[in-house]
Amino acid sequence: RASVVQAPNSVLGGLATRRVVRLTLTQGPEPVTADLLIYTPAKPGKHPAFLNINFLGNQTISMESDIPISTKWFADRPGIAENNRATEASRGAQVRRYPLESILSRGYGLVTFYRGDIEPDHPEGWKVGVRGKMQPTGRAFATDDWGAISAWAWGLSCAMDYIEIDDLFDAGKVVVIGHSRLGKTALWASAQDQRFAMAISNCSGSGGAALARRCFGETVEASIRQFPYWYCENYKQYSKNEAALPVDQHELIALTAPRPVYIASASEDLWSDPKGELLAAINAQPVYALFGKTGLGQLDFDPNAIRLPPPERPLGETIGYHMRTGKHDILKYDWEQYLNFADRHLGR
Ligand code: GCU
Q: Which of 22, 23, 104, 274 has its CA 20 to 30 A from that of 5?
């Protein structure tokens, strides 16, 4: 069920309209709800859009002072949350990751919501999130039941259900985009839901775009040790046993085919294994070829002979790739490449 939490406002100097729509996602008492913060270009028409889950709440993505602050669980962190609730001080804390003016002036909408709306990101989070609420009473999780990443990905599909009925969107042109753990989530959401016209993985690393069998940076063991609840139980079999994996992450990327997919890394983000992300993109190409599509296309360097892919050189056709100089983050440079890629493929 969708209901309006904040009516449309003209924002960003008239560039955009902003509103908040609440999705109620489960039945019964204390249902799971997700608040979609929605920006659409002010000019009339049906708009393409980027759909994203944010790390620290809707109020962190913009300096605007009237974005409702979520009352859900947050990890305590100075300037963000105290006593597990987000503070006023958190407003605008992640603006560097959201170049709103660029996105909207290029003609795209943005829909974003807080990860903790679907499931709080901690080992017990499932109890209050969709996984707990949808589990038949008394039944334990099976070894192939979903983890938090799948739950978040399901939330993206629910947001897509809403976008499809909202007249301000062109639902055939929705790009699912995520950074880091939410980049893993974006790839998984796109693999399962063909309504996403395009997927973008920014520094998604282990469990995302990076090849697990390279065992470089964050290994399966390291990821499961810190975040066992992100994955299904079965994944544990491959901890320190990556060679036994029957699939690897290039196949996750390929599950978006023939739709365009973009993989991006950052040069100092070795935990996410930039080279493993590029090699996964390269190895996803045969599936695109089956659809008559060119993936990355001809490379003018040997990916196996170099330590890292060259930075600031966006590559590719139906599969895009770039490595940005710098740290684990999603910045204006990254968004510029995504906007260019979306323009190219969504026919703007
Ligand atoms: C940790 C984790 C990564 C994840 C990252 C993030 O570093 O090990 O797998 O991508 O957090 O989400 O920022």
A: 104
Q: Ligand 1 pocket test: which of 77, 206, 229, 271 has the largest number of ligand atoms within 8 Å of its C-beta?
A: 271
| Position 61, amino acid | I
Query: Could you confirm whether 328 is annotated as catalytic?
Result: yes
**DSSP assignment letter at 198:** E
The reported pTM is 0.98
Kindly give the distance from the C-alpha atom of residue 211 to the centroid of ligand 1, in angstroms, as a whole number: 15
pLDDT in 10s for each residue of the chain, 348 residues: 999 999 999 999 999 999 999 999 999 889 999 999 999 999 999 999 999 999 999 999 999 999 999 999 999 999 999 999 999 999 999 999 999 999 999 999 999 999 999 999 999 999 999 999 998 887 889 999 999 999 999 999 999 999 999 999 999 999 999 999 999 999 999 999 999 999 999 999 999 999 999 999 999 999 999 999 999 999 999 999 999 999 999 999 999 999 999 999 999 999 999 999 999 999 999 999 999 999 999 998 998 888 888 999 999 999 999 999 999 999 999 999 999 999 999 986
Burial of 307-340, coded b for 16+ CB within 10 Å and e otherwise, reads eebeeeebbbbbbbbbbbeeebbbbebbbebbbe
CA 119 vs. chain centroid, Å, equals 15
